[in-house]
Amino acid sequence: MTLLEKAYEHAPHQAVEWVSAADRAFGSDPSQVAYNLERFSEDSIQFSRPDAYDRLRAEDTPPFGLYGVGLYRSHSRGRFHAAAFVMPELVNLPPTRGLRVASSPIMPIVRFFEASAAGPPPDGLIVVLPPPVNQAAVVQGPIEWGTLGVPVWLGDGRAGILTAGHVAPTVGFVVSINGVRGGTVVFASSRAGHATAEAVADVAAIVLDDKGSNTYGLPPLLGLGNAVELATVRALNTSGTGSAGETVRALLPRFAVDAQGAWAESVIVDAAISIAGDSGSMVVDSEMRILGQIVGGHEGAYSIFQDIDLLLAVSGTKARL
Known about the structure:
Layout: H1 3-7, H2 13-28, H3 30-46, H4 50-56, E1 66-73, E2 80-86, E3 100-101, H5 107-115, E4 125-128, E5 133-134, E6 137-140, E7 143-145, E8 151-153, E9 159-163, E10 174-177, E11 180-189, E12 199-200, E13 203-208, H6 210-215, E14 232-236, E15 246-255, E16 262-269, E17 282-284, E18 290-298, E19 302-307, H7 308-315, E20 318-319
Parallel strand pairs: 2-4, 12-16
Antiparallel strand pairs: 1-2, 1-15, 3-4, 5-18, 6-7, 8-9, 8-20, 9-13, 10-11, 11-13, 14-15, 14-17, 15-16, 16-19, 17-18, 18-19
């Protein structure tokens, strides 16, 4: 099931249906989305803040500052609301360190959605957050490292492990685990090489050899969980962050980052449970049920993980419990 399908039991149907329609419009033609947003924002941004205007048009940002649309869980009542997720520059705000709900309607964005096939968001929420980055750490030159995540059975019955695709992007890539050869990448998918805002699973599957199986220890896992149903999560990572429960704050069908593909089926945690080097970390709930894997975030502000159902389906694997 997709995140929106799961959300039908936990969010107003009108909100879920709007997010579904708005996301389809976003994914069908991101360049047109960027053009229309720029057109509606020209008067309020281009002339008052040319630096912000230039930033919104840069290739390392999502289409004119729109990360995507999704469901946002309010602090007060814990229910989900339809929302648009944007960069601070798009709403004339200075850089922010965390998730922030705009306190008044942002007319260029409201006008943009009013003119789209989806219509205006039923709750009118605009969520502002600083730009995310991959949570990989650079070791030397182009070499990045991350963290091993969900234990799986591969399609041929061999034992394997998942991680983020951007840290193991090539089939045949030999993986080092704790300094020794531990396995080989047999499946890889990442945002690189995909069209702007195309929804992508950022995941790699690794077949473990004997040394890898003996080197990487796993805690007891009690099945697959549902990020929509619960309030708190934590990441099992090497950095030691995320030991305390943090709140699941938002669900997005796609999270656009830049001119490459977008993270599909994304869950935002409203405090950082990951840092550089934690890409691929398994995210679990308080009962040690698997929810997904870390792919990105903004250090000290929030983390993003992709839903486990997507990762297993795309990689052709089953959770090894």
